[in-house]
Amino acid sequence: MTYMGWWKESIDIVKKNDPAARTSLEVLLTYPGLKALAAHRISHFLWRHNCRLLARMHSQFWRFWTQIEIHPGAQIAEGVFIDHGSGLVIGETAVVEKGAMLYHGVTLGGTGKDVGKRHPTVREGALVSAHAQIIGPIEIGKNAKVGAGAVVVADVPEDVTVVGVPAKVVRVHGKKDEEVIHDIEEGREYYSEKLEDLLKAASFHSSRL
Fold first, then answer.
1. Rg over CA atoms, the chain
2. Which SUPFAM superfamilies match (predicted)?
3. Full DSSP string of 69-105
């Protein structure tokens, strides 16, 4: 897709998903999420062509203007929608697929102990609500929904909704399969164990400061 084609598609996505968006000109001039995604296309290009310092400087410049921090190494597909955006952070090895929606205050971050792929993957059509914290090299499944303020530390299956701290599955979209329900119960236990490990690690690091 050409750069101009990307702008048109991105503006149309904003107008489709945000009832407050009235005109294309308004979206172009006033939506920080759109500007941050456009800037990331340039930062990511520089990153892939080994202009790493320049890529980081460019991304930090736009972080200042949009209050959205996207590492230039992150892979963000066309068709992603960032609403409001202030305080949103996307880490270096994060992947965000087409049609995903991210709201303000979301973190796609790492645990600090992983190597290689350290950040989450958000699959096509997934929605991550305001101030949700997605931590580690985990996957938010296709069309899954993460509630506001949720802390997610394990994979979220496709077509489910998770909420809370730690995040728990509260809805399976259109599914009643007993095997799915069993997987959900196991997932709840896994979330609790992972969160406990993270809290212990945080407490250990704090005690050494």
1. 18
2. Trimeric LpxA-like enzymes
3. EE-TT-EE-TT-EE-S-TT-EE-TT-EE-TT-EE-TT
Angle, helix 32-48 to helix 3-17, in steps of 10 degrees: 140
E strands within 49-177? 69-70, 75-76, 81-82, 89-90, 95-96, 101-102, 107-109, 121-122, 127-128, 133-135, 139-140, 145-146, 151-152, 160-163, 168-172
Q: Rounded to an integer, what distance in angstroms lies between the CA atom of residue 107 and that of residue 90?
A: 6
Contact 32, 86 (CB under 8 A): yes
- Assign domain 3-207 to its CATH architecture: 3 Solenoid (2.160)
Residue entry with tokens 């929608």: 81
Q: Say what the pLDDT of residue 177 is.
A: 46
Residue 114: is its pLDDT beyond 60? yes
127's tokens: 């929605």
CA-to-CA dists, residue 116 to 45, 119, 133, 189, angstroms: 20, 9, 20, 26
* Mean per-residue pLDDT over the chain, rounded: 86
